[in-house]
Amino acid sequence: MANILIVEDDIDIAQGIAEYLEAKGHLLDFAYNGKQAMALLSDNHYELVLLDLNLPFIDGLDVCRSLLTEQLTTMPVIIMSARTQEKDILAGFDCGAWDYLTKPFSFAELSARVGVCLAKSASTSQIHNNIEVGEACLNCDNLSFEYAGTTLQLHQLGFDLLKLLMNKSPATVKTADIHKELWPQETPDSDPLRAHIYKLRKQLKTTFGQEFIATIRGVGYRFQLEQPQD
After folding, report:
1. Which class would CATH give 128-223?
2. What confidence score (pLDDT) does residue 199 get?
3. How far apart are CA 181 and CA 76, in angstroms?
4. For position 230, what pLDDT does the model report?
């Protein structure tokens, strides 16, 4: 059972989601525009947020961005939107969303994604050991990556990617295994990994001067530290 905030301006859609999730034992709260959502998130604790993007007053992406510095490391946000273009989906993840569900969707699929996000959140909150590869350290308490005295705060997905690669280092992780671990609900023809690897590499390169993630063509990806130049 989880305390969930539904942020959706269509009352019929919000009610349908609520009825389905209440039957699963969850507790629901509602916001019908961005201002209401911001007020409720400021005053209450939620285990998960279901967030529409096309909201009155404050756009859903701005609501999500407002949580970046603190709550998104432990509180999953699932975006529910009729915006189906790749740029919109990537914008949602870039704002810190854990998952992105395009409308229309079935309540059964939504419930499955809620379950996956809640399980990941619970697993993350129970982790207390850092993961170290050479001088690189993944801080599992605050979802940050540290190297050479510099720290980068990660989104949940970036943390999950680095955690998987660093735990397997120096071995290569197959692309199919990464998909199965991070996107179990995606269809086989969906390929969310490449774009997220690109964004994560860009963040790492900008902050540390190296990408840390090597592509092994035809196989997958590997965590790799560049050797210092003499």
Report:
1. mainly alpha
2. 87
3. 17
4. 45
For the chain, the three-class secondary structure string (H helix, E strand, C coil) is CCEEEEECCCHHHHHHHHHHHHHCCCEEEEECCHHHHHHHHHHCCCCEEEEECCCCCCCHHHHHHCCCCCHHHCCCEEEEECCCCHHHHHHHHHCCCCEEEECCCCHHHHHHHHHHHHHHHHHHHHCCCCEEECCEEEECCCCEEEECCEEEECCHHHHHHHHHHHHHCCCCEEHHHHHHHHCCCCCCCCCCHHHHHHHHHHHHHHHHCCCCEEEECCCEEEECCCCCCC
Residues of the chain with pLDDT under 50: 188, 230
148: left (phi over 0), alpha (psi -120 to 50) or beta: left
Query: What are the pLDDT digits (tens) for 53-104?
Result: 999 999 999 998 887 655 555 689 999 999 989 889 988 988 888 899 999 9
What pLDDT was estimated at residue 17?
Answer: 95
CATH class of 3-125: alpha beta
